[in-house]
Structures are given as structure tokens and as C-alpha cells.
């Protein structure tokens, strides 16, 4: 009788120990599944955040002409929470014939506030390039003329690129024709021996530096 009681007690203890082990294993497995699911859900989120931050990163660029002979290029680059749009133009013909030879400026915007930019940045930059071309003589001159992508018509105002007037620089020169005119005028009003000196003074008087 005593042996039966002892055996029953040992069997009961063994059964209880097995229940404890099974319960502990189930909890560990549950924690492992939860951690795995959390890691899997966090990975795509991190990827989306990384892609979103890189949409305007790197060097985005293009080119466009202005009707007066200027050939322009533009480059977009992240600067803090804004994007800087740098524009540089040059007219080699004006270096010979006279006129504006170089033009440069910077535009700033926060395109990330435009939903279209977030969904399709490639199309956004194509539209920015077309918008710059439409501005023509207003490029780097008119701060009221915003550079707008068509997909961002309903976006906040700061989604459009605005000219920083302090960055606008225009260079010009008289060219070879201007110097020829000075020489011709000098020969008409001065004797041939004094023509060179007269031409020099005429160029000084008509120079923008005087």
C-alpha cells in the first residue's frame, strides 16, 4: 500500500513537471514569433524611409535654351530640409558680338511637400526642366516667377522653386564690334596719328565701368 502511494506521488510530480515544461516552451515560442514578425514589419518600413529620403538626393540635372542665345544647365541638390536648384547660362556668341555672356542664380523649394514628388520624382524633375524653359528671359531675373511642376499645382507654395535674388549674377561685355566702332569714330574725328589714343578714350567713356 505504501509503495502504491509513493508511485502515485512520483507520477503526479512527473506529470506536473511536464506541464510546466510545455507551458514554458509555448511562451518562448510565442515570444520568438512575435519578435520575428516585428523584425519583418520593421524592415520594409526602414526601406520605405530610406527610399523616401533619397528621392531628391544625388545630382539631378538638365539643360534648356533661352531665345537670346543663352545655353543653360540646371542642377538640383539637397540642402538641409530644402532643395537648391542652381542655374548657369552662357552665350559664347555674346563674347564676340557683345551682350550678356553669363547668367547664374539659385532657386529653393521644399518639393517633399508635394505628393507627386513623393510618388514619381523622375516625372517631377522633367516637369521642372520644362518649367524653366518656359520662363525664358525671366530665368534668374524675376523672383515672382516660380518654377512649378505641373503635378504640384495644388501643393503648398513652398513646394515650388523661388528665385533667391541675392544669388543672381549677370555678366556682359561690349565685344569686338564695339571696339571696331570706337576705332572708326576715332578716325573720323581725330587725325590718323591720334586715332589710337582717341579710340582708347572713347572706349573708356562708353565703358560700363565709367
UniProtKB/TrEMBL annotation:
GO terms for cellular component: extracellular region. It comes from the Eukaryota. Its main location: secreted. The lineage of its organism: Eukaryota, Metazoa, Chordata, Craniata, Vertebrata. Belongs to the fibroblast growth factor-binding protein family. Residues 1-25 form the signal peptide. Pfam families: FGF-BP1 (PF06473). The keyword Coiled coil does not apply. Residues 38-62 are annotated as: Disordered. One of its GO terms (biological process) is cell-cell signaling. It is found in: Secreted. The keyword Cytoplasm does not apply. This is Fibroblast growth factor binding protein 1b. Keywords: Disulfide bond, Growth factor binding, Secreted, Signal. GO terms for molecular function: growth factor binding. InterPro entries: FGF1-bd. Residues 38-54 have a biased composition (Low complexity).
